[in-house]
Amino acid sequence: MAKPTLTNAAKPATYDVEAYNERGEMVPTAIAGEHPLTIYLDKREIVTLMTLGHAPEALVIGYLRNQRLVDSIADIASVQVDWETDSAAVTTLRQKEIDLEKKTVTSGCGQGTMFGNLMEEIDQIQLRKDVSLEDTNLFLLIEKVRKHETIYKQAGAVHGCALCTTTGEILMFVEDVGRHNAVDAIAGFMWLDAIDGSDKVFYTTGRLTSEMVIKCAQMRIPFLVSRSGLTHMGHQIAKKVGITMLGRASGKHFLAFTGRERIVRTTPQPTALA
């Protein structure tokens, strides 16, 4: 059986950026890549996936297979990935009738169709610069989240997000099968209860992707904290919009990737031995 014609357009898996630890020391740190990839099936736009970009052709073929958009690998003539346009053009030998109106995007990580619309709003977002977060309160918050009674402790398989104050108080905690669902629920509660996000901290158990950063910015929240890492695009957007992004936050350790000027160091530092 003839295989489709494929590009070989793998992206680097990681990028090196500067981060600053809880002692204010610069720590070169590797972060994961993240890139939007819009799939066009016989010139019809299907979906935009957020991807590491390490095996884009296989990702596209697997997506089409799992979504039942093609019936066989033999039906695919070519997959052409072009990172200059962030697109993957798929040509088939036998076009299949597809009802694009009946399209469900799952809650799984890395899938979404909102990316273009979200990016258009970035230049309009303004975050407060006159708010700060003391490291002692950050450590308090990290410990409270760790002790929080969660579905994850009972059953696993979920992500959690929390809206918090800069003094370390948890205002609400939401879990769901996808972290994007959890952040959307908190955004809904904030609207319902008229909660101002401009002086709040957002905590998530999941990695800090571009969509997480954008949604946090849409809620006007200046602090974004995760026990996990971040992606390259998440890092770029956080710098652009001015969010204080803290990753790998656990115990009394964190890495400030952007906006470290909002962090106030109050924890006594160990003295060097003579």
Average of the residue pLDDT scores = 86
Give the strand order of the largest sheet, numbering strands 1, 2, ... along the chain.
3-2-15-14-13-12-10-11
Q: What is the subunit organization of this protein? A: single chain
Distance between the termini: 72 Å
Structural class: alpha/beta
Strand content: 25-35%
Largest sheet: 8 strands, mixed
- Low-pLDDT ranges: 104-108
Principal-axis shape: elongated
- Number of DSSP helical runs: 7
**Range of helix content:** 10-25%
Write the layout of secondary structure elements.
Layout: E1 5-6, E2 14-21, E3 26-32, E4 35-41, E5 44-51, H1 56-66, E6 76-82, E7 87-92, E8 111-112, H2 115-120, E9 133-134, H3 135-147, H4 151-155, E10 159-165, E11 170-176, H5 179-192, E12 200-204, H6 210-218, E13 223-226, H7 232-241, E14 244-250, E15 253-258, E16 263-264
Description:
The chain is α/β, with parallel strands linked by helices and 274 residues long. 25% of the residues lie in helices and 32% in strands. The chain has 7 helices and 16 strands. The chain has helices at 56-66, 115-120, 135-147, 151-155, 179-192, 210-218, 232-241; strands at 5-6, 14-21, 26-32, 35-41, 44-51, 76-82, 87-92, 111-112, 133-134, 159-165, 170-176, 200-204, 223-226, 244-250, 253-258, 263-264. Strands 3-2-15-14-13-12-10-11 form an 8-stranded mixed sheet, with helices on both faces. A 6-stranded mixed sheet has the order 1-6-7-4-5-8, with helices on one face. The protein has a two-stranded parallel ribbon with strand order 9-16. The longest helix is centred in the C-terminal third of the chain and has 14 residues, at 179-192. It is elongated, with a radius of gyration of 21 Å.
